[in-house]
Write a structure and sequence with these properties.
By secondary structure, the protein is an alpha+beta fold. The protein contains 3 helices and 11 strands; from the N terminus they run H-E-E-E-E-E-E-E-E-E-E-E-H-H. The protein is elongated and about 100 Å long.
């Protein structure tokens, strides 16, 4: 009886050890067209990590069809060189930390489907088979603020504020001048131009120059 009991315990321990590898992924991932997306996959193994550890990612389209191996890892990464994800898969994991994640560059709406992460670390070769459903959509227009747009905003917004402030100041100056004109304000001898009125102020350019000289007067100057 004791022999049978010991054998049963050893068998149970072996089964538990063989099924001790656990894998976790995000059940659903939202991505946007042409924006890199990461498919996370973490695992836990009670056996030491060795060079025999392998990671395999497979893909099945949302419309169904056969499963396609898109990535393989064993000591180094082997991205797919043919198929739907050719040259678009990169390794972002770290098996020493229990990370078997990958990234997809330039995702497209045709990439919508189910992704499966499988990890084997002998003798841990049996595990759950979690799946990630990827949904790729177009990002809304209101959120499409590229770096160029942001830079334009940062450059032109302060300029617009300065222009508005100058216009307000010039408006106040113009109001003061109108008030002086209505109240019979006369220029001082310093403000009177030395040039004849018919040669300078009689022209459009002369009148504009005179008006600009008057604009540089302080706002606090009271009419006589």
């Amino acid at each position: 009886m004791r022999g049978w009991a010991a054998g049963g315990l050893l068998l149970l321990y072996g089964v538990c050890n063989a099924l001790s590898l656990e894998i976790n992924v995000d059940p659903e991932v939202q991505a946007f067209v042409d924006e890199q997306v990461t498919l996370k996959c973490t695992f836990r193994s009670f056996s030491p990590i060795t060079q025999k550890l392998t990671v395999d990612w497979t893909y099945q389209p949302l419309t169904g069809g056969r499963m396609e191996t898109i990535f393989h890892y064993q000591s180094i990464a082997y991205p797919a060189v043919v198929g739907t994800f050719r040259d678009r898969i990169s390794w972002v994991g770290n098996v020493a930390k229990g990370d078997a994640s990958i990234a997809i560059q330039n995702p497209m709406m045709n990439d919508n489907g189910t992704f499966t992460c499988a990890v084997k670390n002998p003798p841990d070769v049996h595990h759950n088979i979690p799946q990630t459903k990827l949904t790729v959509t177009h990002r809304g227009f209101s959120f499409q603020l590229t770096s160029a747009v942001l830079l334009s905003i940062l450059v032109f917004l302060p300029s617009a504020i300065v222009v508005i402030l100058l216009l307000v100041r010039m408006g106040r100056k113009f109001g003061v001048l109108k008030h002086r004109k209505k109240s019979g304000y006369k220029k001082s001898s310093i403000e009177v131009s030395d040039k004849p009125e018919d040669t300078e102020q009689g022209t459009c350019l002369g009148r504009m120059g005179t008006w600009c000289l008057q604009c540089v007067d302080t706002d606090d100057e009271e009419p006589y």
